[in-house]
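tokens incoming
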């Protein structure tokens, strides 16, 4: 029979992804084919991932943000994303349940992976988000959040923290769920662009 796995998804992985994401079998198989075309090794390196992001933001610099996103999805920390990690990432950022999204957002902001978020970590992620906002668009931001520092300060104040305090995952999730404005401040709303790009590729 030979090894058909190279171009087809294993039944286990397919079932796993179907039950954990909102994608259909057809969608998953189509994406797997294009995934293998782009990444014949079956894994995406950090550099490839940054390249994918760069193609979505031709007028900005998404490198730092892409690096953080990559880190948050590289669940086994092997420096690559396999198809499962990639699809789960796609699902979470574009259509996951709010709680899952917030758990992911926490992982994104927890830069050193120690289970809490510091003010510096918030500034680091917010700065990487700002790198992706074209300069002209930055001019249209409200006065109290038109720099990474101001936006990070606004988020930090919302949580009522002193400069050296930390935010736990529970506090973070509860805080964001209680205040939709914070959700807007902590994220860069790119998933729609990425979905549109994927659709273009499919046609």
């Amino acid at each position: 029979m030979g090894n058909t796995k190279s171009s087809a998804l294993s039944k286990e992985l397919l079932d796993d992804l179907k039950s954990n994401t909102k994608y259909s079998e057809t969608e998953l198989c189509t994406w797997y084919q294009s995934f293998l075309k782009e990444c014949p090794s079956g894994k995406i390196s950090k550099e490839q991932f940054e390249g994918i992001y760069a193609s979505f933001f031709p007028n900005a610099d998404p490198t730092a943000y892409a690096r953080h996103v990559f880190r948050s999805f590289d669940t086994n920390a092997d420096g690559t994303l396999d198809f499962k990690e990639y699809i789960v990432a796609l699902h979470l950022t574009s259509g996951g349940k709010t709680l899952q999204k917030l758990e992911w957002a926490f992982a994104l902001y927890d830069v050193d992976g120690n289970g809490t978020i510091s003010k510096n970590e918030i500034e680091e992620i917010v700065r990487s988000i700002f790198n992706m906002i074209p300069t002209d668009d930055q001019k249209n931001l409200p006065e109290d959040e038109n720099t990474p520092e101001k936006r990070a300060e606004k988020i930090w104040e919302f949580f009522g923290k002193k400069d050296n305090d930390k935010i736990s995952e529970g506090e973070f999730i509860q805080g964001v769920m209680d205040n939709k404005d914070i959700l807007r401040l902590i994220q860069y709303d790119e998933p729609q662009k990425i979905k549109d790009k994927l659709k273009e590729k499919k046609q």
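note: The two ends are 32 Å apart (CA to CA).
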